[in-house]
Amino acid sequence: MTNALIADRDRFAASHPEKRVTVNGREWGMIAAGEAGPALVLIPGTLGRADIFWQQIEALRGRVRILSLSYPSTGGIVEWADDLAELMRRQNMDTATVLGSSLGGYLAQYFAAAHADRTERLIAANTLHSVEAIQQRPPYNSDLDGGPIEELRAGFGRGLTAWGETHPEQSDLVEMLMAEQGGRIPEPELRSRLKALKHGPELPPPGIPADRIVTIEGDDDPLVPPDMRDAVRKRLKPAVAYQFAWGGHFPYVVRPTEYTTLLEEQLGLELTGEGWGEGRARSK
């Protein structure tokens, strides 16, 4: 049976291949799209490359200048934040709405504090507020430098398999993520993503006012428990907190219309979707 998500993503990837660019000695992957409109930076989580946001890129590229990223194989949160500022400069983005999911959400929060002058808006999605306890949790409690990559990949595989068994309607997503962790994300890049969180810095206070901060979360997110979601909101005090009733850790993949709608709202664009459906938003 054809996996519709993978087929559609691969179609997009063939027409929008990653460009490899070196910043401060680190090689990033990037997809740049759109020539006019507000600027939007998209930062994936551990199991995504720049093209994992393909549905949002295609929906917005005619109205938004987009920079979507894949992580390098070296460096960490602090270095990557400085690299991002330089990548934005090269794309002539003085400021941008910066959306990061999961690992990307942690980086986006750090970036908004370290480079507030370049952050028009922060959107912290399906993410965490602290890495204080993460070192005791798998796979972060493993030897991320010398441990067998097969063991690290197998750990992701077990978690994805369990999610697929309880959510068979998301089997296409699980298969796509299995391919990402199984080799589409090269070993050095996968290790660097894990180490970035394991050794991540404490987040500084937000560098921009709360009325320019947004959060996104999912009621059924298997990786970000309710107490962590609450802690993210307590720390950031967002002007708007979007809450998906379902969509797991990857609502931008499995609920692309609703996800695009919230981006249109935040970027001040005309809404093209059908609204929230089973998702819901709450404002403070």
TrEMBL record:
Keywords: Cytoplasm, Hydrolase. The keyword Hydrolase applies. Residues 40-258 form the AB hydrolase-1 domain. It is found in: Cytoplasm. It comes from the Bacteria. Pfam families: Abhydrolase_6 (PF12697). The keyword Flavoprotein does not apply. InterPro entries: AB_hydrolase_1, AB_hydrolase_fold, Maspardin. Its main location: cytoplasm. One of its GO terms (molecular function) is hydrolase activity. This is Maspardin. GO terms for cellular component: cytoplasm. Coiled coil: none annotated.
